[in-house]
Each structure stands twice: as C-alpha cells, then as structure tokens.
Design goal:
The chain is α+β, with helices and mostly antiparallel strands. The protein has 2 domains: 106 residues, Aminopeptidase, CATH 3.40.630; 142 residues, 3-Layer(aba) Sandwich (Aminopeptidase). The protein is built from 7 helices and 12 strands. Strands 1, 2, 3, 4, 5, 6, 7, 8, 9, 10, 11 and 12 form a 12-stranded mixed sheet that branches. The relative contact order is 0.19. InterPro entries: Acyl_CoA_acyltransferase, GNAT_dom. This is N-acetyltransferase domain-containing protein. Pfam families: Acetyltransf_1 (PF00583).
Length: 260
C-alpha cells in the first residue's frame, strides 16, 4: 500500500467530498472547508479544510457562527497534515478544546483475515432493530463509561431509514452483551469505517476486538470496499498494527461548545 496515495484518496473521498453520514444530515462545501450539520443527535463539525495563514481565522469564525446560531456543539476534525501548521493554536485561541489524539489507521481488506473466531461461549449477533441497539448501548455505557443515548438515537434512525449504510454487531455471552461495534458504509467510496468498538472490562483481552474486526472486514469485502479505516486510540493502535493496519496520519478532535 502506497501510504501517500491512500492518504490523498482518503482526504478526497472521506473528507473533501464526503457524503452525509446519516439521515437528516447535510454536508456543505466551500473552497476552503467541508462541514456536516447533523442536528441534535447527529455528528456536527468540520471534516476537511484547505486553509493558509491568511484564510484560517476567517474560516474558524464562520464555522463558530454557523453552529452557534443552531445551538450545536461541534468538532473540528484536525489531521496532522492539515495546514496551516499553527491551526491548533488558532483553534485554541478561538475557544476550542482539544481531545485525545487518535491514529488514522488503514488496511487493505484483501490483506486482512476475515476468519471470525470469537472466544468460546461467545456468539456474534448482527443488530437490525431497537432491541439490538439497546444491547449495544449497554455495552457502550460499560466499555466507555459515557452516556450512549445520542449514539442510540443516531443508530436507530440509520437502521430505520438507511440500513444499507451501516452494519452493527454485538457479542453475546449467553444473554449478556459484552462487546459491540459498528461499520459505516459510505456510498461511492473505497473506505468502510470501523467505529465504536468496545468491550466491557471483564471480557477484555480475550480476542473479541479482533473477532469483531474480522466480522466487519468480511462484510466490507462482500460489498466491494477496498479499505478499512479506523480512528484508533492508544489502546487499539497496537492491536490494529498487528492485524495489518498502517498508520497514515493522526487526527485530533477540537470541540467547540456554543456560549449560552
């Protein structure tokens, strides 16, 4: 895999020319930015920017104005290769708060194992309805110690109105959900995105994360995608590297909360 070429393709398909990631979301493009407005339960933010020292501050002001007028918190999804180099400092000066850096990791699906081997006593169940989404939410709340209500609402809407754009799976130990993940399947793109992979503490270190990646990789291959993409935390980065993913860049969320 040519890292520079794949990164350029990723920037074009998944950032500059990205489609809305769910029902009700809209994407707007200018010469210097691409943003999505997803509403109260969707993702809101700037996905791509092509800025320089002269245009950066005005672009930041415009995005703050747009989302603040809607009363929406939003994220500026900044990548390490984005310009200008002092954009992080400009975002901080404008009132954004940075969250932990993640690694942009990509693998060619044809080079990954798609043999799904869950641990003994575990079954994988594809999520297609509200009951399955509720099981995923239980896992999310325990795995990440955060409120999964927004993700619950977003996934329910997506499964109902655009089921071909997402695959969700939950790992069950008997009747107990212990791990879950989803995959976004954007139209007219080479990349399928892996999101939300989490395992409850008592079941970590047993191969569930790897099994869920293989499960989704198999489906992505069947649907004609060439690459899998992950925004990886420090915990998942080494696992993904062992499975064949390469780090192409890093991405840091810069979050802005509208002033009341």
């Amino acid at each position: 895999m040519n890292h520079d070429e794949v990164l350029a393709t990723f920037d074009t398909q998944m950032r500059r020319n990205v489609r809305p990631d769910g029902p009700g979301a809209r994407v707007e493009r200018t010469a210097t930015t691409t943003r999505q407005t997803g509403g109260e339960n969707g993702w809101n933010g700037v996905l791509w920017s092509g800025l320089d020292a002269e245009s950066a501050d005005a672009a930041i002001v415009e995005q703050v104005k747009h989302f603040s007028e809607l009363g929406l918190e939003f994220e500026w999804k900044l990548y390490a290769h984005d310009l200008p180099h002092d954009l992080p400092a400009r975002l901080h000066a404008a009132g954004f708060t940075s969250e932990p850096e993640e690694a942009l990791m990509v693998a060619e699906i044809g080079e990954l194992s798609t043999a799904v081997v869950p641990p003994e006593g575990i079954t994988l169940r594809e999520v297609t309805d509200a009951a399955g989404v509720e099981l995923m939410t239980i896992v999310h709340d325990q795995a990440f110690d955060t409120d999964g209500s927004r993700i619950r609402a977003q996934l329910l809407k997506q499964l109902t109105e655009a089921p071909d754009t997402v695959v969700a799976v939950v790992a069950m130990a008997g009747d107990v959900p212990v791990s879950s993940a989803r995959m976004e399947l954007p139209l007219d793109a080479d990349f399928a995105g892996l999101w939300g992979g989490g395992t409850v503490p008592a079941w970590r270190g047993r191969g569930l994360y790897r099994a869920l990646i293989a499960y989704r990789a198999r489906i992505a291959a069947e649907r004609g995608y060439r690459y899998l993409q992950v925004d990886a935390s420090d915990q998942s980065r080494p696992i993904l590297a062992r499975l064949g993913f390469a780090q192409l860049s890093t991405t840091t969320p810069y979050v802005y909360q509208p002033r009341s």
